[in-house]
Structure formats: C-alpha cells, structure tokens
Amino acid sequence: xxxxxxxxxxxxxxxxxxxxxxxxxxxxxxxxxxxxxxxxxxxxxxxxxxxxxxxxxxxxxxxxxxxxxxxxxxxxxxxxxxxxxxxxxxxxxxxxxxxxxxxxxxxxxxxxxxxxxxxxxxxxxxxxxxxxxxxxxxxxxxxxxxxxxxxxxxxxxxxxxxxxxxxxxxxxxxxxxxxxxxxxxxxxxxxxxxxxxxxxxxxxxxxxxxxxxxxxxxxxxxxxxxxxxxxxxxxxxxxxxxxxxxxxxxxxxxxxxxxxxxxxxxxxxxxxxxxxxxxxxxxxxxxxxxxxxxxxxxxxxxxxxxxxxxxxxxxxxxxxxxxxxxxxxxxxxxxxxxxxxxxxxxxxxxxxxxx
Length: 355
Fold this sequence. Notes:
About 35% of the residues lie in helices and about 15% in strands. It contains eleven helices and 13 strands. The strands form four sheets. A five-stranded mixed sheet has the order 2-8-7-6-5, sandwiched between helices. A four-stranded antiparallel sheet has the order 9-10-13-12, with helices on one face. Helix 6 (about 165-175) links the parallel strand 5 (about 150-155) and strand 6 (about 180-185).
C-alpha cells in the first residue's frame, strides 16, 4: 500500500533543508555544525535551574516581555522593535510568511544559507538568486532592481565573508521600496552589526541567533530587530501559529546570556583567536582560506580534493562539512572553529593526511 497517497501536493514539491550530521557515536572532533566549543554562561545555568520547578506547569509569558526588554536595553532600541522566537530559523520562517510573500520575486545570493529556497518552496514565494562574484563576495549593486524583498546573511554562510556596514547602508539608501533582511547569525565573530541602522531605515530587519556566540544551540532561541510596524507583522503570524512561542527556560536563559557580557566577550575572543591560528596553519599547508568573520572557515586545498579530505577526516573521527552543490563550492570544506587546542589537534591530523 502506498501510504504517500495521503501526502498533499506541496510535500512532493519540497526539497527539505539538510542539517549537519549529528552523530550518535563519540567522535574525536565535531566541526561540522558551527556549535560553540564553550558552554553557556554560568549565569544561564543558574537561571535555568531556578525556573525548573513547579511553575513549569504554567504557560510562559506569550510576549516574552522581559527577554525583549533585555535585548532592547542591550541594543539601545525600543522594546517594540524586538521579536523573539524558537531559534532564528523560526523567526526567519515568520519573516518569509509576513514580509516576503509579495507579487515580485525576492532576492538572495546563489551561494548562501540553504533554508532560504526551502522556505520559498514551503510558502509559495517567488525568488531569484544573485551570483556571488569570482571571489565569493556579495555585490549589493546587483540587487538594485524591482523586487519583493532582499535577504542575505552577514557574514555570508557558508563562505564566512562579511559585508561592511558602509556597503549595507549604501544599499539601504537605494532599496527603499522593499524589505531588506540581514541574517546576522554569525555577526559576533568579526562582522559589524547593522542594528545601529534600524532607527534610520524602516524597511530593515535584522535577525540574530543565541545558538552561536551565546552557546545556546540546544535551547533554540533567536530574535528579529526592526521598526514596530514590521515587528507587528511577525507577531500576527506568530500568534496565528503558536502564541506561546518561547518557553520559560528559553526566556530566562536568554536574559541571563544577554546580561553576562564579560563571559560572551571572553569566549567570543577565544574563538576568534583560535580561528586566526587555524588560518595561519592551514596557509602553511597549501590551503586557500576565504576571509572569515564567522566561527567557521571556508577553505580548499590547492591539490587534494575536498571530498577526499572530508572522508579521510571522517575516518579518523573528525567531522567537517562538505557541500556537493552548487558546483562552484564542491572543492571547499567548511570547518567550525573549536578551542585552540582542538584546532592544534586538527592541524596535526591534517598534516598526517597530507603526508
């Protein structure tokens, strides 16, 4: 019996997003999903412990007001400019439904976060992809034609290359008839956030994640920052889908993570230091590395095939990410930055493989 006969037509049309492998067996190094090598702030653990009591029988605050206020204070924006959800992926889903479903196609890079075309297929949104240049940079001048919205990560993923705040503002000045969404999941590792432009441009939406620089990938927490009118569109969609979007643990953990700036800076800087160490060492081994402002690098060896390196690393218990499409990036590996000690371990093993 073909049980798929019960599927809707939409299901057949979808190409689901493929996340990085999450192995069940113990590995030597897991460098494939851009997780933070450091645990969350001790204040986060305390906050979670304090809320795991009898009050879990009660629904959380549906508006996440205290978490919104913490983010508003941190970024010096009104609380009405803040939206929170279960991970930036859910926040992006609400954005695609509420702000990007227009009569004109939306625009995003041809090499970027692969959830964007997935959401377009799921929600019936037209889109055009804009090619990165020969050095894998986003050229925002290429996006200056009539569109239903623009979305791109800064820094881009999986290439890790950032756009300057100057370039972003020049684009915003010339693209004022549609929403511009900047996905800042990795911005804390070396790029400059565009949050400071929000008050000036009422068509700008910033999304950020607590998964990377705040070490909360296991809790699923993200936010959008934009003018109140855009935020209200997200709220209407959220409250038509799941009004109690962020649970009690997530709200308390997010507040604690935002407040512990010293821990955030300490671990963020340690990752940047480890990234620079790895870049230097790989350069000595005949690797080409794209300039990175993320907690990962995008690299290829000048002689050895990327898939071969991927398989040999996996054989010895090291997971990195290899993308078999589009064709332009099949020779590259994406490597998550761990601790400096982990990066030294990776370098040692790569030397043995290359020998």
